[in-house]
Design brief:
The chain is of the alpha+beta class. It is 31% helix and 15% strand. The chain has a single domain, classed as DD-peptidase/beta-lactamase superfamily (Beta-lactamase). Strand 1 and strand 2 form a beta hairpin.
Length: 384
């Protein structure tokens, strides 16, 4: 009987360890981030150095004037314009954490830069905290039951659920803050009439990367929280993880809404037309460390492991996409030879937050040529 009890406790302990792994180091706010040598983890120092050199020598080829880079990158879109703030960027920078400790870093990791669609993973986390706090009862609820101001009216839009918005397969139809859904990343073929009057896809069936629809999610969450999302992010996540006071989350110039008689800005989920999250590599790394540790920061749970599990489940239309996190499953965006458990936030210009649970790694890159990320990750992997 005693042996059975001990075995049961061992199994429960093992499950608990896997379910909510606890790292032993979380940097305090403003402290000098602790480092450990590659040798301490039996990591090949030469190969790790080679990976860092690769990141430094493969800088994103777009202009460091990000206003110019944005206009050039999206020049084929009709009516595209800058609607929110931009900022000239720095050079390549990044960090590699093992068990929370820095084992490699390069560039200016404290510099605040635009982070583009990495913002989407922060946005989906705002939905996660709302879900944890039961502000959203079910992720499969139709959004029109929460947002009844006309945003989700109509035969098509009324079918859209929170999950559809999070997985970018809603095919929401309309315009918001000067952006038209059909004009955002239109098909390579066709013209205005074909794009405007196309047949809409049933929600949940086709993934389309579209910032207008992402901004509809941000708008909807603002009304659910009844306060600006930057304030929610600060209170619920960034302050508890000891982030700096330098990050900012911007919206478009005319993206104002009124809630409870208060005039507040609705932010964007990226920098497609300017705006989005402006943040340092170190604050990005803290956010990644929270996810590596299953939503727990220094023994305090900030985000449920239930939500994280949902967020990194492949969506039906795209095996490589969850709730605004990219997944390294075997699909069109698979990094060959690397764990399928890896997931990551990705943004224009080579901004990444990568979570590797199998190796207990968080990897942040800034301004790495996007086509080189797979090769970079392979070089990091080769060091182990």
């Amino acid at each position: 009987m005693k042996k059975k009890l001990l075995l049961t406790l061992f199994v429960i302990g093992s499950i608990t360890h896997n379910y909510a792994q606890q790292l032993d180091y979380f940097p305090e706010r403003n402290e000098q981030w602790k480092e450990k040598s590659a040798k301490a983890y039996k990591i090949n120092k030469e190969r790790l150095t080679e990976a860092v050199s690769f990141a430094k020598s493969n800088e994103y080829t777009g202009s460091r004037d990000l206003r110019r880079a944005i206009l050039k990158g999206f020049e084929r879109e009709p009516f595209h314009e800058i609607l929110g703030p931009t900022k000239k960027r720095g050079g390549p920078a990044g960090m590699i954490l093992k068990d929370g400790y820095i084992i490699a870093k390069w560039g200016d990791t404290k510099r605040v830069d635009m982070t583009f669609s990495v913002t989407k993973s922060f946005l989906s986390t705002m939905a996660g905290v709302a879900y944890d706090q039961q502000l959203i009862a079910s992720i499969n609820d139709k959004v029109e039951t929460y947002i009844w101001d006309g945003t989700f009216d109509g035969e098509h839009n009324s079918k859209i659920t929170w999950e559809h918005l999070l997985q970018q397969n809603s095919d929401w139809s309309g315009q918001l803050w000067g952006g038209k859904d059909w004009a955002d990343r239109p098909p390579r073929k066709g013209g205005l009439d074909e794009w405007k009057y196309r047949k809409l896809n049933e929600p949940g069936t086709v993934m389309e990367y579209n910032d207008v629809r992402v901004n509809v999610l941000a708008y909807s969450l603002t009304h659910v929280w009844r306060k600006p999302l930057p304030q929610v992010l600060k209170d619920e996540i960034m302050d508890p993880i000891g982030a700096s006071t330098t990050w900012r989350w911007h919206g478009y110039k005319d993206a104002w809404t009124e809630i409870d008689g208060v005039h507040m800005k609705s932010v964007t989920g990226g920098g497609h037309s300017g705006a989005g999250l402006f943040i340092s590599a170190e604050d990005m790394a803290r956010f990644g460390l929270l996810f590596l540790n299953n939503g727990v920061w220094n023994k305090k749970r900030l985000l449920s492991s239930t939500w994280i599990e949902k967020a990194i489940q492949p969506s039906k239309p795209n095996v490589n996409y969850g709730y605004m996190w990219w997944l390294n499953k075997k699909g069109k965006r698979h990094w060959n030879g690397l764990s399928e458990k890896i997931y990551y936030a990705a943004g224009f210009g080579g901004n990444f937050i990568i979570i590797d649970k199998e190796r207990d790694l968080v990897i942040v890159t800034r301004w790495l040529e996007p086509s080189k990320i797979g090769a970079f990750m392979q070089k990091v992997n080769d060091a182990f």
